Automatic annotation (TrEMBL):
<feature type="domain" description="Copper amine oxidase N3-terminal">
    <location>
        <begin position="162"/>
        <end position="257"/>
    </location>
</feature>
<dbReference type="InterPro" id="IPR015802">
    <property type="entry name" value="Cu_amine_oxidase_N3"/>
</dbReference>
<feature type="domain" description="Copper amine oxidase catalytic">
    <location>
        <begin position="305"/>
        <end position="707"/>
    </location>
</feature>
<keyword id="KW-0801">TPQ</keyword>
<feature type="active site" description="Proton acceptor">
    <location>
        <position position="376"/>
    </location>
</feature>
<dbReference type="GO" id="GO:0005886">
    <property type="term" value="C:plasma membrane"/>
</dbReference>
<dbReference type="GO" id="GO:0005507">
    <property type="term" value="F:copper ion binding"/>
</dbReference>
<dbReference type="InterPro" id="IPR036460">
    <property type="entry name" value="Cu_amine_oxidase_C_sf"/>
</dbReference>
<dbReference type="InterPro" id="IPR000269">
    <property type="entry name" value="Cu_amine_oxidase"/>
</dbReference>
<dbReference type="GO" id="GO:0048038">
    <property type="term" value="F:quinone binding"/>
</dbReference>
<dbReference type="InterPro" id="IPR049947">
    <property type="entry name" value="Cu_Am_Ox_Cu-bd"/>
</dbReference>
<feature type="active site" description="Schiff-base intermediate with substrate; via topaquinone">
    <location>
        <position position="461"/>
    </location>
</feature>
<feature type="domain" description="Copper amine oxidase N2-terminal">
    <location>
        <begin position="74"/>
        <end position="144"/>
    </location>
</feature>
<dbReference type="InterPro" id="IPR015798">
    <property type="entry name" value="Cu_amine_oxidase_C"/>
</dbReference>
<dbReference type="Pfam" id="PF02728">
    <property type="entry name" value="Cu_amine_oxidN3"/>
</dbReference>
<dbReference type="InterPro" id="IPR015800">
    <property type="entry name" value="Cu_amine_oxidase_N2"/>
</dbReference>
<protein>
    <recommendedName>
        <fullName>Amine oxidase</fullName>
        <ecNumber>1.4.3.-</ecNumber>
    </recommendedName>
</protein>
Length: 753
């Protein structure tokens, strides 16, 4: 034998192993990248038409500011630096055109409505300080402005109703640190170990007990991560009703269950040994128990969704197209996420769907907690839309949209990636059936829906706002609450008002209520409200008359007036309630869209309360009224600081007008009770804290429109369901065996704070 032969064989074997390894790696270890394919997107109108609803651009906002600075004849101070006695621009937002004008433009070839802005100005430097609202236009080059305050609200808006600017809160912080705290140096140093930096404040609202008050409790916390659950027991009531900051004063102090006239009295009582001191253990900077830093090391990554052939939806300017759906979206500085001109299969279903308000009413045995009623629209659900984290707040490969707002400053603020749009496979069938009787087959449709999302962080709470579009023509509005629970210092009978969350932390009981405006236009503007339900009727069995049958039957009722269509929170509401069109489907039924509410709300506040009218929308789980341009919203940003004389009282919308064959609006309220518990530490989860509503086609179509979806699956026992031609699921190993292109992670949430 040739002595070189073994070496030759070894070399040959090595070459073969190398080649095979390369082949395996190329086939199994390095999949091809996913390539976008031309999407199946149905055209449903001009994308340029949706711009009639588009948010103001940063340049348009700046143009409005420059115009007002040059035309009003009074100096306008930057709101971020304004004192209470100054004039300033508080906010600039889109002035949505009148519906009739928009419909003439969209549907009848009419002229495009002029593009206008709504500017809210604080006039503190006037003999009679007030808040004034101006409509400014036409954009992008303003040439006129008109005062619409009296037209909208029936009179001037008193200055004390103005939402509190960030600058005023900063001025209050300076007052507390330099004036109030200076009166109690010994107490603060020895009890709170105060060093000028280790205390955080949380404000309460409304400011007092009657119209004209501007008196606020400030609750003190340790200034650490998650400070909301680190109360120190001290709360200070500040009267800042005067426009002269030098006249601000402490009017009451609370510490560990005891009230004092002011900080001077607290200091005196402490020095004399007459204060019951409860020292709080100093927390580290990360908050210790309130830290959201994971307690476990990273492991295998969680499941991710991707689109093997690219997105099946399109986003152009402010319009979205998806599986027969089209709509325009926007972000109001006060009310947040909103939709316009919502269409399915080319036909308008809703003219407007928008968030209106988020309300929380708190209980406690501490003054700050017991007096808190947050109306978050006053702070700004759109203004506080937070930048979204890819892969957590939304799927990593979602489409992220930047938004702009001008509020509390002369310069527009850009919030990168503060709105996201994505298709979401819910991991369950939208519909399916497995037949094992008679014929053998399987048919179904994956429940893949489009989601539009924004998340507003208002103080301690984060609200996840979703609008979800399903392939069967249903649309869902949903909100999930997370963030930190608000807390009080645990003392005395505190456990009557919540649960103990940590050594000195009382998680305070509170409610959540959210209100939506749903302007449905079902097969036209004119609709009626119809209720269907079920009742049992007793009947004799026709084939056996001696036997009785309890038979469910359909009940029907047309709700003719606004009073009939206003359903109180605890009242029984028909289980099927829908907007009915004047047209019928193939089977002779009025075409309709049903409203289905998911809510666990209790009482919002006793109606005898002096402030209840300001939140009277929360009396009703559903109220349907005639649409009026002069009733655009269920509340007002001015209601928060003067709920005793509300600028807008929703209860006045309901005055028994006829609602048969009219342009109607549904005002929907959903809510839940939150009793914070130990699992709310470090913070609250979204699971179980979700409410909202569904809009579902009810005899609107002749059959389920999702049967025309490209995602449908059907095969029989006689077919070869392993082939792509018969079963598209069998194609997945080929069509989805690719690597998605994940762009580098970016986040802009900490810029330009």
């Amino acid at each position: 034998m040739n002595p070189r032969l073994p070496y030759v064989l070894l070399v040959g074997a090595a070459v073969i192993i190398f080649i095979l390894s390369c082949m395996l790696l190329s086939r199994g270890g390095r999949w091809p990248s996913c390539e976008s394919q031309p999407g199946v997107v149905e055209k449903t109108g001009s994308t340029s038409q949706s711009l009639v609803f588009a948010d103001l651009t940063a340049e348009e906002m700046s143009q409005v500011v420059r115009y007002l600075q040059g035309q009003l004849g009074v100096p306008l101070v930057d709101a971020s630096r304004a004192k209470p006695w100054d004039n300033c621009i508080a906010s600039v937002d889109l002035q949505v055109p009148a519906k009739a004008e928009v419909l003439r433009f969209l549907d009848a070839g009419g002229a495009r409505p002029p593009r206008e802005a709504l500017a809210v100005l604080y006039f503190g430097k006037q003999p009679e300080p007030n808040v004034t609202e101006y409509v400014v236009g036409p954009l992008p080059t303003p040439a006129y402005h008109r005062d619409v305050t009296v037209q909208k609200y029936g009179g001037k808006v008193p200055y004390h109703r103005r939402p509190t600017l960030r600058g005023e809160y900063e001025q209050l912080g300076v007052f507390l640190e330099t004036k109030a705290f200076a009166a109690a140096p010994t107490f603060l140093r020895e009890v709170l170990e105060y060093d000028g930096t280790n205390v955080a404040f949380q404000t309460t609202v409304p400011h007092g007990f009657q119209s004209g008050d501007r008196v606020t409790w400030f609750v003190l916390f340790q200034n650490v991560s998650g400070f909301f659950v680190h109360p120190v027991g001290l709360e200070v009531l500040v009267d800042h009703s005067s426009l002269d900051i030098s006249q601000w004063a402490v009017s009451r102090v609370f510490y560990n269950g005891q009230y004092y006239r002011d900080m001077v009295q607290l200091e005196s009582a402490y020095v004399q040994g007459r204060v019951s001191v409860e020292k709080v253990r100093k927390a580290p900077w990360d908050g210790d128990f309130s830290s959201m830093k994971p307690r476990a090391a990273a492991a295998a990554p969680f499941p991710l969704q991707f689109e093997p052939q690219g997105p099946r939806y399109s986003v152009r300017n402010n319009q979205v197209l998806f599986q027969g759906w089209s709509f325009a979206f926007g972000m109001s500085v006060s009310t947040g996420l909103r939709l316009f001109d919502v269409r399915h299969k080319g036909e308008r279903v809703a003219y407007e769907i928008s968030v209106q308000e988020a309300l929380s009413v708190y209980g406690s045995n501490c003054p700050g907690g017991m007096s808190t009623r947050y109306m978050d629209g006053s702070f700004g659900l759109g203004r506080y839309a937070s930048p979204l984290v890819p892969g957590l707040d939304c799927p990593y490969l979602a489409t992220y949209v930047d938004t702009h707002s001008l509020s509390g400053s002369l310069r527009p603020q850009k919030r990168k990636a503060s709105l996201c749009i994505f298709e979401h496979n819910l991991g369950s069938p939208l519909r399916r059936h497995y037949s094992n009787l008679q014929s053998l087959y399987y048919g179904g449709l994956v429940n893949s829906a489009l989601v539009v999302r924004s998340i507003a962080t208002v103080g301690n709470y984060d609200y996840v706002w979703d609008f979800i579009f399903y392939q069967n023509g249903a649309l869902e509005g949903k909100v999930q609450a997370t963030g930190y629970p608000s807390s009080s210092f645990l003392h005395g009978d505190g456990l009557r008002y919540g649960n103990r969350l940590w050594e000195h932390t009382l998680g305070t009981i509170h409610t959540h209520f959210v209100n939506y405006k749903v302007d449905l236009d079902v097969a036209g503007v004119k609709n009626s409200l119809v209720a269907h339900d079920m009742a049992f009727e007793m009947t004799r069995a026709p084939w056996s008359p001696e036997q009785q049958i309890e038979r469910p039957r359909l009940t029907k009722k047309v709700l003719d007036t606004e009073d009939q269509a206003a359903f109180r929170l605890q009242s029984k509401m028909p289980r099927y309630i829908y907007f009915a069109a004047n047209s019928k489907n193939k089977w002779g039924h009025q075409r309709g869209y049903r409203i289905q509410i998911t809510s666990f709300a209790g009482d919002h506040i006793p109606e005898a309360s002096s402030m209840e009218r300001a939140i009277s929308w929360a009396r009703y789980q559903l109220a349907v009224t005639r649409r009026k341009e002069e009733e655009p919203t269920s509340t007002s940003i001015y209601n928060q600081n003067d709920p005793w004389t509300p600028t807008v009282a929703f209860a006045d919308f309901i005055n028994n007008e006829t609602i048969t064959n009219e342009d109607l609006v549904a005002w929907i309220t959903a809510g839940f009770l939150h009793i914070p518990h130990s699992e709310d530490i470090p913070n609250t989860v979204t699971v179980g804290n979700s409410v909202g509503f569904l809009l579902r086609p009810y005899n609107y179509y002749d059959l389920d429109p999702s049967i025309y979806s490209h995602d449908g699956v059907f095969f029989t026992s006689e077919q070869d369901f392993t082939t792509c031609e018969i079963n598209p699921l069998a194609c997945l190993p080929k069509t989805a065996s690719c690597l998605p292109n994940f762009p580098p992670f970016t986040y802009d949430g900490f810029r330009n704070m």
